[in-house]
Every structure is written in structure tokens, then in C-alpha cells.
UniProtKB/TrEMBL annotation:
Residues 1-18 form the signal peptide. Keywords: Glycosidase, Hydrolase, Signal. The keyword Hydrolase applies. Gene3D superfamilies: Glycoside hydrolase family 3 C-terminal domain, Glycoside hydrolase, family 3, N-terminal domain. Residues 468-677 form the Glycoside hydrolase family 3 C-terminal domain. Belongs to the glycosyl hydrolase 3 family. This is Putative glycosyl hydrolase family protein. Residues 76-431 form the Glycoside hydrolase family 3 N-terminal domain. GO terms for biological process: glucan catabolic process. GO terms for molecular function: beta-glucosidase activity.
Length: 680
């Protein structure tokens, strides 16, 4: 009887607080949960929840109603948890649900739950999202399959669903040219090669295939596409950019439609959209101006006027927003000295208010740690500046305890307002509801059979052949060297890149920086040549042929493949841009003795000395083609015509950089848009 009287009195107090818009945890007037300890003098904890009319769990309710309902039920801790993205190496199902008071035995009387017995554990969701860093894989297994990934992610998701409110996480991965972190998936050409295709329909199909293979692994969030406009190939992320030309980059944003699905015509501008469980949330990055930094320095400073920033670098974001992109990632770079992660004018005033973006803004990896020197210092100040500037979710990803402690302090001290927190969480929840995560939180195992499928590899093969740019075809323009005769007696294939799948795929494949060798399933250029030539033809492969080797055989022609080793981000910053490993020496050695087709594997234009170029019979820019080397032989042996056009200007010397095709001084080796045909 005493318990009933106490419960009734407390219920009346809470209803009064609720009527005055005061909140204790999640206050709903219909139901009260009182937690009584089994021991006199122990503290009492109170939570409330309306389980009769749970709007946010009803898929038939409008998204905004679901967001409002769920937000009203959330504690401060749960809200801050939603703003936190952590790395899988620190994530466990138990961590996903914070260890707080809960899991009780209930006796239902009237509209009240009386809770009897000692305190146990109630899970409160700690993280809104989990991601894998580039080298982070299930069980640290580099050959982990999509099924292995799905098992791991579903385990974490189970922890999220067991939390007090059952808010699902979304799992993020750098699926930037296919689901490239996972063994056996289809790896498409990097963006610079796709820019050479100038084919938005192809990009949409690539996006759709990537979405299917990504969802098969349990990942719901692809950290792609990079829509940087690369103005200087010295930048280590040049290959992540479709082009130096803003309008071409805008066309290539069709990848988002493939990843997320085609939005309905009546979708409000700026509203996030995901068509269904065969699609993923996309991420337009890196906002804004990352491709325009001084001297192409990674994470550097873009020194231009606002009008130039808008007309060169910001326009592709308008297209992404119109396509319903779910998230935008802030750039490590600065604009005229101001860090993008703390730039309220660009993140809030422009992106959210002027452009009307209703999705979620996320930091880059440890984006807040990078704001001060030494790295990671003044963290509380960095958190305050970032959140107040308009960051909604922080890719912490390791020091989550410190982040949550500092953000809690900032809110409780008033330095970060509850209105800013609620805005951030509303955006995160809006994206989760739009993505259908509450209805379909787990991996769809029926998609596993499509991973690395023939249909997807055919799309990638098409992308490879359309990306190839023919820069030279014959020493005499009236006597084209290509297409090659596949029925000659003996062919030399030379260069490490001819038989190295890792080099062929480039960075962001299996690991961040990429690797050498058979890092996944695919076809090297050498494999493809052997598959294509006639039955009576012989292929001799020499990684580094010598004059003595060349003199031993009579070759009809040589295919020499040289280029860059894989790299990513600042590791790729390069002020010289020469062909590595004395590739130019190899080209001259072979071409001086044998008619030679040179294939350049690179993420950007490289120096081509006149003495090298004059020696070659034919030259192809193949970019970073991915796993489907057959796309190259499709074209060089004449089954398909060359299609690609240069998405970037090919300089004569690095002294000309950065180049601008609009200036009178523009004098490239090969201009933007250049590309020959072989007239097959």
C-alpha cells in the first residue's frame, strides 16, 4: 500500500513537471516507472516511457513526427551518444549500450509499473554510429568476407537494439570505389578514371552495384563520393576527384542516385533520402574547397574569394543536396586560414540555411583532434567550436569517453546550447528514419550472392574501357599503332604494374594506402592479355627486362605498364610527379628496341619527358582501373573503341602548376578533354 501511495504522489509530481515543459529523463504522462531498491537507503532512479503509443516505432507515421517523438523521450546522455561515431576496435555490443541503471522486474498495476527487486543494468545507447578505419576488419582478418562483416556488424546492431529506446546504429565504411575494404568485392576505377568516362548513367549503375555489395556486408553508410574539384595534381587525393572541371564533377554526382536510389519528385529540397534496404546512405565530401589548397597540400589552405569558392568548389554540393544526399563531411582543409571543421558561416549559414541541407554534417576522422597543435590538444575547446559551428556527428573515433565527458560539460555549462544538441540529434534521427534503419536494421543475407558477381564485374569492366584515354597512337599520325594484332607470334609484357592487382587498384583498397600483390580477387593486365591473345601467340613477361633479355627474343611488340605505387591522402602529396621506380627509363629501354605501347597506371598526370614520349609508339592513361583488367584488353586489341577524355590538364612540367584552362598562359602537354580514337 505504501508503494502505491508513493508511486501515485510521484506520478502527480512528474505530470506537473511535464505540463510545465520540464523533463526528467524521458517524461510521458501516461506511464511511470519507479525503481525501488531492495535495500533501505539505496538511491531511487526514475524513468518514464509511453509504450502504448510509440510514434517513433510506427513506420506509417511521418518521419518528422517520429523524430519529434523519439527526441522527446531521450536523455541528454542518449542524445550525446547519437552524436558519437566510434571505431569498431573500441566497439562491442556491451559498449554500444552504455552500462546504466535498468533491466528490472515489473508488476503492472493500473497505469503504473512498480519495480521490485535490486538494481540491475539498463542499457542506454552510447554511440549513434560505428565505422571501420581502413585497416580495421572483422577479427583483424584481411581476407574477411562480406558474410564475416555482416556477422560482426549485426552483433553490434543487436547491442544497439537492446538499448532502452532501441535506436539502431548505422555502420560506416570508406566504400569509395566499390566496397573496397572487403575481400572479393568488385573494385571499380577510382574517381579520376570515372571522370574520364564523362558518363553519368554509368556512374549511377556503379553506385547501385556498390550499394548492393556494401549492404551485403551489413554496412549501411558509404563514405562516398568525394566531389572535390582538384585544381592541382600535386594533391595526394587527386585520384579521388572526378575532374578539375566543376561542371564535369557536377555530372558525376549521379553516383549518389545509384547509392541511395532515385528520390521522388516531391521530395523537399535538402531532405535526406534512401530508397530501400538495397541502398546505402551516401556522404558528399569534403566540404568545401579541399581540391583547391595552395600547392595541392593535403589538409592545406584554400586561398580564394567566396565567389570563387562557391562557383568552383561548392556547386557540386547543390546537386548532391538536390539528390537527397544524407550526409556531408567537413574537410580537414581551411578556407583563407579558417578551419572548415569550425567554420560556422560555411557549415551552418551556407550549407544548412542557404542551401537548405536537412541531413547530417559529420567530421572527418579525428577531425576535431586535428584542430590544434600538438595533435589532440585543447580538445574541449575543439569540441565546443566544432559543435557550435554546425557539426552534428563526430567521427571521434577512439577517445569517445573524453568526447562525451567534454561535450556533457559544455552542455551543462551552457557553452553548447540544448537547442544546438537537439538540432544535431534531429538531423541524425532524420537520416536514420529516412534510411529505414528502424524497420531493417540487420544485414540482408540474400545479397551475399551478388558480391563480386559477373554482372557487377561487367559494369566495372565497362568503366575501365570507357576510362582509358589514348594520348598517342603511332609515331606517324597516318599509321596508327593501335589496335594491336592479337595473333602475332610473340609479345613482351613488362613492368611491375602489369601483374600487380594492388597497384592496379590503388589506394583505399583493402587498406588506406593500398598494397601490392593479389590483395583481392581480380584480373591483372597480364592475366587479361593472356586471355585475349590468339592460340598460337606467346606472352613473355619480364618485370624488369634488360638489354640482354630483349635480345634473346623476336617480339612483334611490347606492352609496358608503369606508374605510381598506391598511396592515400598526405602520403600522396608530391611536388615532383615523375614516374616512380625509373619507369621512364624502362619505357625508353624497351621502346628503343621494340615497338611499344605504354600504359600508365596513376592517379593523376605525371611528367612525360619529350625523349620518352617521342620513343613510344602509343600511350594510354589508364588511371587506377580496379580489379577488371580485361577492360584494358577490350580496347587495345580493338573489340571496343577508345572513349575516355582527360578530366584534368596534362602539364608539361610541374613549374606550370596549378594550371587554369581559362587563362591565356594555359599551355599543357595535353589539354583538358583531350583523347584520341583508334578508329577500330
Amino acid at each position: 500500500m505504501l508503494q502505491f501511495i508513493c508511486c501515485t504522489l510521484f506520478y502527480c509530481i512528474l505530470v506537473t513537471l511535464h505540463q510545465h515543459n520540464l523533463q526528467i529523463l524521458s517524461v510521458q504522462p501516461l506511464l511511470v516507472i519507479l525503481l525501488f531498491s531492495g535495500h533501505a537507503g539505496d538511491p531511487v532512479c526514475v524513468t518514464m516511457g509511453d509504450t502504448v503509443n510509440t510514434v517513433y516505432k510506427n513506420a506509417n507515421e511521418p518521419i518528422e513526427a517520429r523524430v519529434k517523438d523519439l527526441l522527446s523521450r531521450m536523455t541528454l546522455k542518449e542524445k550525446l551518444g547519437q552524436m558519437t561515431q566510434i571505431e569498431r576496435t573500441v566497439a562491442t555490443p556491451d559498449l554500444i549500450k552504455d552500462l546504466c541503471i535498468g533491466k528490472f522486474k515489473y508488476i503492472c498495476t493500473l497505469n503504473f509499473y512498480f519495480v521490485l527487486g535490486p538494481k540491475t543494468i539498463e542499457p542506454h545507447l552510447l554511440a549513434g554510429s560505428v565505422l571501420s578505419g581502413p585497416e580495421s576488419k572483422p577479427n583483424e582478418n584481411s581476407n574477411a568476407t562480406s558474410a564475416d562483416w555482416a556477422d560482426m556488424i549485426d552483433g553490434l546492431q543487436k547491442g544497439a537494439l537492446e538499448s532502452r529506446l532501441g535506436i539502431p546504429i548505422f555502420y560506416g565504411s570508406d566504400a569509395v570505389h566499390g566496397n573496397n575494404n572487403v575481400y572479393g568485392t568488385t573494385i571499380f576505377p577510382h574517381n579520376v578514371g570515372l571522370g574520364a568516362t564523362s558518363d553519368p548513367d554509368l556512374l549511377e549503375r556503379i553506385g547501385a552495384a556498390t550499394a548492393l555489395e556494401t549492404r551485403a556486408s551489413g554496412v549501411q553508410y558509404a563514405l562516398a563520393p568525394c566531389i572535390a574539384v582538384c585544381r592541382d595534381p600535386r594533391w595526394g587525393r587527386c585520384y579521388e576527384s572526378y575532374s578539375e572541371d566543376t561542371q564535369l564533377v557536377r555530372k558525376m554526382t549521379s553516383l549518389i542516385t545509384g547509392l541511395q536510389g532515385k528520390p521522388p519528385v516531391n521530395l523537399p529540397n535538402g531532405y535526406p533520402y534512401v530508397a530501400g534496404r538495397n541502398n546505402v546512405m551516401a556522404c558528399a565530401k569534403h566540404y568545401v574547397g579541399d581540391g583547391g589548397t595552395d600547392k595541392g597540400k593535403s589538409e592545406g589552405n584554400t586561398i580564394i574569394s567566396y565567389d570563387e569558392l562557391e562557383n568552383i568548389h561548392m556547386l557540386p554540393y547543390l546537386d548532391c543536396i538536390a539528390k537527397g544526399v544524407c550526409t556531408v563531411m567537413a574537410s580537414y582543409s581551411s578556407w583563407n586560414g579558417d578551419k572548415m571543421h569550425t567554420n560556422r558561416y560555411l557549415l551552418t549559414d551556407i550549407l544548412k540555411e542557404k542551401l537548405g541541407f536537412k541531413g547530417m554534417v559529420i567530421t572527418d576522422w579525428e577531425g576535431l583532434d586535428s584542430l590544434y597543435e600538438p595533435y589532440g590538444s585543447n580538445y574541449r575547446t575543439a569540441v565546443s567550436l566544432g559543435i557550435n559551428a554546425g557539426i552534428d556527428m563526430v567521427m571521434v573515433p577512439i577517445r569517445y569517453q573524453l568526447f562525451l565527458e567534454d561535450l556533457t560539460y559544455l552542455v551543462e555549462s551552457g557553452e553548447v546550447s540544448m537547442a544546438r544538441i537537439d538540432d544535431a540529434v534531429e538531423r541524425i534521427l532524420r537520416v536514420k528514419f529516412a534510411a529505414g534503419l528502424f524497420e531493417h536494421p540487420m544485414a540482408d543475407r540474400f545479397l551475399l550472392n551478388i558480391v563480386g558477381s559477373k554482372a557487377h564485374r561487367e559494369i566495372a569492366r565497362e568503366a575501365v574501357r570507357k576510362s582509358l584515354v589514348l594520348l598517342k597512337n603511332g609515331k606517324d599520325p597516318h599509321k596508327p599503332f593501335l589496335p594491336l594484332n592479337r595473333n602475332v607470334k610473340k609479345i613482351l609484357v613488362a613492368g611491375k604494374h602489369a601483374d600487380d592487382l594492388g597497384y592496379q587498384c590503388g589506394g583505399w583498397t583493402s587498406t588506406k594506402a593500398g598494397a601490392s600483390g593479389r590483395i583481392t580477387i581480380g584480373t591483372t593486365i597480364l592475366d587479361a592479355v593472356k586471355e585475349t591473345i590468339g592460340d598460337t601467340s606467346e606472352v613473355v613477361y619480364e618485370k624488369n627486362p634488360t638489354t640482354k633479355t630483349l635480345s634473346k627474343h623476336v617480339f612483334a611488340y611490347a606492352i609496358v605498364v608503369v606508374g605510381e605505387a598506391p598511396y592515400a591522402e598526405s602520403r600522396g602529396d608530391n611536388s615532383e610527379l615523375i614516374i616512380p621506380s625509373k619507369g621512364d627509363v624502362l619505357l625508353k629501354l624497351v621502346a628503343q628496341q621494340i615497338p611499344t605501347l605504354a600504359i600508365l597506371i596513376s592517379g593523376r598526370p605525371l611528367v612525360l619527358e619529350p625523349s620518352v614520349l617521342e620513343t613510344l609508339d602509343a600511350l594510354i592513361a589508364a588511371w587506377l582501373p580496379g580489379t577488371e583488367g580485361n577492360g584494358i584488353t577490350d580496347v587495345i586489341f580493338g573489340d571496343h573503341e577508345f572513349h575516355g577524355r582527360l578530366p584534368v590538364s596534362w602539364f608539361k612540367s610541374v613549374d606550370q602548376l596549378p594550371m587554369d584552362s581559362r587563362k591565356d598562359s594555359y599551355d599543357p602537354l595535353f589539354p583538358f578533354g583531350y583523347g584520341l580514337k583508334s578508329n577500330v
